[in-house]
Fold this sequence. Notes:
alpha/beta, 9-stranded mixed sheet, 17 helices, 9 strands
Amino acid sequence: MKKGSTCPVCGKEQTEERYFCAECGSFLDRDSFENKELYGLAEIKVKRILENLKYTPHSKIIWSDMVDLYTRKVETYRALTMLPEMKGRVAVDLPEKMEHFLRLCREPEFQIAFVGTIKTGKSTLINALLGHNYASMAVTPETAALTKFRSSQQDYVDVTFYSAQEWKRLWDSRTSAADAFMREYKELCAESEKENWVGHAPIHKELANEEIERELAKWSSSRSAVHYFVKEIEVGISSLPADFPKQVVFVDTPGLSDPVAYRSEITKQYIRNANAVFVCVEAQKLQMEEINTISSVFSFSSHNKSKVHVIASKWDKLNDPIVDWKKEKEWMKKQLVGKGFFDSKEMAETNIMHSAAYIFNLCRDYGKLDKNGKKPLFQFAIAMDMDLENLKGCLPKMMELTNISNIEKVIKEKLVRNYQTLLCQDIEKAYKDIHYELKRFASEQKRETGEIIEASYADMQEVEKKLEEQKRNYEEVQRSREQLTKILHMVEENTRKRLDQFLALQ
């Protein structure tokens, strides 16, 4: 029935051209069919679906009326896609998108993801921003499990493990570059630990702040056999500033170039869903390979390029950090502005930063360092032409040069201070994405249904045409039969007359 018409049963005006009423499910074009059985079964199904959807459970969202409205709608959409009639018809990833959307609305997290290839200083930077070395900064690659850090009144570590099905998918996703992965897996005798941890129930452990680093290494260090089976770790920290909202989460991800595709895909998914992304590349290794890494991050964040921040880490390793970095940044801006990257030079200027997080952390912990621990600070002081006789007095200037305070400023003023507004914007974008996919799906179904109906009408017309042709053939046969009958009667009559004449002659 055309848009603007009313339902003959409930009187609801139809805002779109449709076959069944959006309010009560009644068939709209009843006058076109004398036989109700032609549409009766479909009408019953639609009415049942609409009745069920009216009573879809709703979890009230109290922190935002707009998000509450979106949640109610997506709960209805999800219930619709779970109906038996819809099984196998919607896009495979759509139910997962809706589940993620509802989790985000019910348990809002403003995720700041730190990504990059292996050993680019992600964990070191996070430690600098958190004010303590929670994540390991060992020479060998350490962060092997995705780890979240958030503010909490009580310090804790939560650990979740892969299910048997997830572990199988992970194991089967090993690439041809996974030789080192397999070698370390065997060296650590991880197979003997698998049965203990795959499918293990989540672990929640409350502990003292100074115990977090050791506890975290147990589950996330690449030198621990258990880490292979850990899906995710969450760390609650009580020592973070009071103005650091508990909804804001730092996410330390495994390397993008992980030889196990399943783990890389988890990182990619976090990039897609994160509200802000800090991608770390080494300042002294800025080549096209690093640009390609940054490009891949932009491809996952194409809907919001401003959320991507590029950190040139280990800035202190440049031959002449201050002079060399000016040249490096100009080269990066040329490479990272345009299609697929930052929209403007101004955005690139703001979102490309350098850091020397390791030096910052050493300065912060200067009082705990022994002679060997202070060596990198002496080397940095020489490079910066500082007074070696008064190394302690140089610490404030060193910390300033590491640029950590500027990165903190961006996080606090641009992200944390506005996290609720930014989170609502991202939720709105996610809702529109779901709505668009559903609308496209509905349009495809409408088109397919229309094609079926048109084909059915075409078939009916073809049948009618054949029946008409058969009728004409039948009438033609009848006329021929009548003509033959008349001819036979005439022959019979003539024969009888001639026979009578012949007998009369006798």
